[in-house]
Write a structure and sequence with these properties.
about 625 residues; two-stranded antiparallel sheet; two-stranded parallel sheet; 19 helices
């Protein structure tokens, strides 16, 4: 500790420093009713021309003395040094094309997987649906591990390269397994390739979006404004990739051959990897800063060790404001920024209190004393968890797109003219078209109009956007139930209830509303979650934040698989299964109504959680350098 002064001495010196009074008041109090300043990083003011020797006065023996100089607190340093030739839209464009190729490959597999499992491998519809949901779920859970490895060890750039190579290996093995049907253990090889793709997805998915968003500097006003729009157009790129796969690859798989279809996916991923390496000199890269879980555990352990300390935020305790080692970790980019302390989870604040033991040691024990910023980072992580939980039912609804929606379409009239029949999974492209159209309207029309009423830079908040998507998911399941009731009625009218392979005299375009409404769900909820789990995570943990968002899809898919098993078990007791292999005799409409009711309950829970969420706010976020209070959702 460099210097010590008591609160009483500080108050006596303030009248003598009238020229610096306002700055002192701003820098020593983060809250109007706080009587004790925070401890800044140990960067000395001794070279300042107005610096004078501090005074010494003992404090309450329950806590250690405060560290402060007579000139007030130093504003946290934010690194603004960056290479203007790196980052920006030019670098982000390379990365967007990589993501488009990955989505092209993923949907080339996932979009028609249920058809391969039922028509080629001979699985029943419920079994195939569960297998698809399990694979999607596992693929969306692996990013948690991939994000941790990227943030802790490899960095996002290297993780993208390694995971792309693994992804490519999985596609090549899958192509081999479907091309050589005489291959021994053909089914085992296919499923092995499928889960190799999951591993590649685990490293690729949490890093690519975060790496692209890192190309925009949050400390530059112009680039910060662009970033929110970036998330919209990033999702447009995803949709273009997935829609192209649905239109081209699925048709090739159904009408030409599965081997050629998967071979196209492997070729596209190879080209994307080459393109990514071409732009290598234009990227801003964030170096790994060690395991973020270590920082989380340090706060929890420190708070537990000081659980009996009485003085907290509103007492006379001293707090360590910043870590000395929290420097910039971005090549050509920005550094880590301090966060405004919040009133949430205040029991964690004790981790930042400097007590007598901390004051008596020359070197800080990170497992006993953490900075306020580190504590606030952990609060951010914990505060996002209720939002994550309240989005799981939404993800369960989205899981129906590539399973039961596709099987519904397979029973309907899919002919266009006398000679052309579209694959049942092709209708998923309508979801993509809806997203493409709606994102443009949202960004160029809805946001400016909403901004006039709300005054918010993005029109509506991220949480409001997610809530709107959850509302649309409830409506989607209600509409899907009505359309399925109509489909079963047509089957009954024409005496086809016991002929599951017959084509019903009902056009597949009847399913268009539910596909389009899924697109509206994505525009609001999915894009909103992408932005929220990036923006509200500490800079060093943003790959984990992306993985958390993706994991909602994974857990939702696993929940969908579990829901199918539960519904089958319950309804089989009555002798009439809701989800049998014969959709004409099943009651898929009842299953959709159950999901609609679950979405309604989920929406109520989400609103309750969102009202209690506090957005993170960097401590110095405006151009003048004044502290800003945290915004409440």
């Amino acid at each position: 500790m460099k210097s010590v002064v008591g609160q009483e001495q500080q108050q006596q010196q303030l009248p003598q420093q009238k020229q610096r009074g306002k700055a002192m008041e701003r820098d020593t109090c983060l809250y109007k009713d706080m009587t004790t300043p925070f401890i800044p990083s140990s960067k000395s003011h001794s070279n300042h021309p107005h610096h004078t020797a501090p005074l010494l006065l003992s404090m309450d023996n329950s806590v250690a003395p405060m560290v402060i100089t007579d000139y007030g607190f130093q504003k946290p340093a934010i690194s603004s040094q960056k290479n203007p030739s790196k980052g920006g839209w030019r670098a982000a464009t390379f990365i967007i094309f990589v993501e488009m190729a990955e989505r092209f490959a993923y949907y080339g597999v996932a979009g028609n997987l249920i058809t391969y499992l039922t028509n080629v491998l001979g699985q029943s519809t419920p079994t195939a649906a569960k297998n698809v949901n399990i694979w999607v779920g596992v693929s969306a859970m692996f990013p948690l591990l991939g994000g941790l490895i990227a943030d802790s060890y490899l960095g996002r750039f290297q993780t993208i390269i390694y995971s792309s190579a693994i992804y490519l290996a999985g596609l090549l093995l899958m192509t081999l397994s479907v091309s050589l049907k005489s291959l021994r253990h053909h089914r085992a090889v296919f499923f092995t390739a499928l889960y190799i793709l999951s591993i590649g997805e685990g490293g690729h998915k949490p890093c690519v979006q975060t790496f692209a968003a890192d190309q925009f500097d949050e400390d530059t006003v112009e680039e910060k404004k662009v970033k929110s729009s970036f998330f919209n157009w990033w999702y447009v790129g995803i949709v273009v990739g997935s829609a192209s796969a649905i239109l081209l690859v699925i048709y090739v798989q159904d009408n030409v051959g599965w081997g050629i279809g998967f071979g196209i996916l492997a070729a596209v991923v190879t080209g994307a990897l080459v393109l990514f390496l071409i732009g290598i000199r234009s990227y801003r890269r964030q170096r790994p800063v060690g395991s973020p879980l270590t920082r989380v555990m340090q706060v929890l352990v420190a708070a537990a060790r000081k659980r009996r300390v009485d003085q907290t935020r509103y007492g006379r305790a001293a707090f360590l404001m910043d870590d000395d080692e929290d420097g910039g970790a971005v090549e050509g980019g920005r550094g880590s920024r301090s966060l405004v302390p919040t009133n949430q989870l205040r029991f964690l604040d004790k981790a930042a209190i400097i007590d007598d033991i901390d004051a008596s040691t020359k070197k800080r024990n990170h497992w006993r004393l953490c900075s306020v910023t580190q504590v606030e980072e952990v609060k951010l992580l914990f505060s996002l968890f209720p939002i994550w939980l309240s989005c799981l039912t939404f993800a369960t609804v989205i899981a129906q797109l590539s399973t039961f929606f596709t099987k519904q379409g397979s029973t309907l009239d899919r002919s266009i003219g006398p000679h052309f029949v579209i694959p049942p999974a092709t209708l998923q492209v309508c979801t993509g078209i809806t997203i493409l159209t709606s994102v443009g309207l949202y960004d160029r029309l809805l946001v400016p109009i909403a901004r006039k009423f709300t005054g918010h830079p993005t029109g509506i908040t991220m949480l409001q956007r997610i809530g709107t998507g959850i509302f649309f998911s409830m409506l989607t399941m209600g509409v899907a139930a009505l359309i399925e009731t109509k489909r079963i009625g047509v089957a009954s009218e024409y005496g086809l209830l016991d002929t599951p392979k017959a084509t019903l005299p009902m056009k597949i375009w009847w399913l268009l509303p539910q596909y389009m409404m899924i697109g509206m769900c994505d525009v609001f909820a999915v894009v909103g979650m992408q932005e929220l789990f990036y923006d509200q995570m500490p800079e060093e943990m943003r790959s984990i934040g992306a993985a958390l968002y993706i994991s909602t899809v994974g857990v939702g898919s696993l929940m969908s698989s579990s829901a199918i098993s539960i519904v089958q078990a319950i309804t089989s007791v009555t002798g009439e299964k809701w989800l049998g292999n014969n959709l004409n005799r099943a009651h898929l409409n009842y299953f959709y109504l159950v999901l609609a009711a679950g979405s309604a309950v989920n929406l109520i829970v989400y609103i309750w959680v969102a009202k209690r969420f506090v957005y993170r706010k960097p401590e110095f976020d405006d151009p003048k350098g004044h502290r800003n209070e945290a915004e409440v959702a």
